Amino acid sequence: MKTLTALLASPRKPGNGEIFMRAVARELGSGWQLEIIRLIEWDIRPCRACYSCLFEKCPQRDDMGEIISRVISSDAVAVVAPTYFLGANSLIKRFIDRGLMFYEFIDKMWDKPMVSVTTAGIDGMEGYAKLMLDSAVKIMGGRLLASVVVYGAFPGEAIIGEKNQSLVKLVADSIVNGRVSSSNENSIVCPLCGGDSFRFLGGEQVRCLLCSNTGSYKVDRGRVFMSIEPGEHQLFLSLQQAIDHAEWLRSMKKRFLQLRTELKSIVQEVSRVGKIIHPKETKKVKEDEEARDSQLPSGS
Ligand SMILES: Cc1cc2nc3c(=O)[nH]c(=O)nc-3n(C[C@H](O)[C@H](O)[C@H](O)COP(=O)(O)O)c2cc1C
């Protein structure tokens, strides 16, 4: 029996994403079982930007380890989240912000079949939510087999109508066959990573917002041709590049230690400016701040 694990970010029980995934599981047939992780029920604390997990263990004592081991032991994974104000809701972001932890297991997560399912209430109003979920899959090292946006506002609407039913089938087929399927064969995709969100930089310059690589495009007889070149930092184009990136991040610790004294005086000078307004419960906030200040700086 194969296991499909759905990481669900909706606070609804059940929400459209969950209903959609249950319908997908019904299509998968008897060789598969669906395991649902409602992220809202799990203790996922924010990344503290300490980078400790790159060297030893993450200091957060929460459920991340358990979720990662379930991802690793699954045969396929679905990342599912609702659109809130044009982006994926914050629960999925909180999960993916802990992604430095994934590097310890990257060889076990690499190339795992994954799908992304974005739900949205209004046709065409998913904003950048789909990009966030595709990115979540890639950051986990997954092989993105299908990425769909499912429209429906009230729980249940996600599986109503021909279009949504065909998306259920498309996602199920891609999982069963381990084959990349697209809900829009005409969409223009990045030749490096398959992403379909771009920033037009002026002239013919374009950047893929999924893999962050830049290149150019041209239009010939109504067809768009993209040429995107890999840049210096690659997060997920190959396993080796993901491993190399983790190694580069680790090497930054040495650089930080070299710069620390210089940075300290710059930080001290500017930190006299402004006043921090703490909430009423100041003690915990202060503790958190002290813990954070003693760690490495963010920015990579
Ligand atoms: C706070 C909030 C913000 C929302 N923002 C959007 C939005 O920007 N675009 C959209 O199409 N739908 C939006 N919706 C609708 C949900 O995306 C939609 O109901 C979806 O089916 C929810 O999926 P779920 O049931 O799996 O949680 C929003 C819903 C909420 C509660």
Structural topology:
Elements: E1 2-8, H1 16-28, E2 32-38, H2 64-73, E3 76-84, E4 87-88, H3 90-96, H4 106-109, E5 113-120, H5 129-139, E6 143-151, H6 162-177, E7 198-202, E8 205-208, E9 214-220, E10 223-229, H7 239-270, H8 282-293
Parallel strand pairs: 1-2, 1-3, 3-5, 5-6
Antiparallel strand pairs: 3-4, 7-8, 8-9, 9-10
Helix pairs in contact: 1-6
The structure holds flavin mononucleotide.
Number of strands: 10
Dominant shape: globular
Task: Summarize the biggest pleated sheet.
Answer: 6 strands, mixed
Count of helical regions: 8
Query: What ranges have pLDDT less than 50 throughout 5 or more consecutive residues?
Result: none
Radius of gyration, rounded? 21 Å
Keyword list:
300 residues, alpha/beta, six-stranded mixed sheet, four-stranded antiparallel sheet, binds flavin mononucleotide
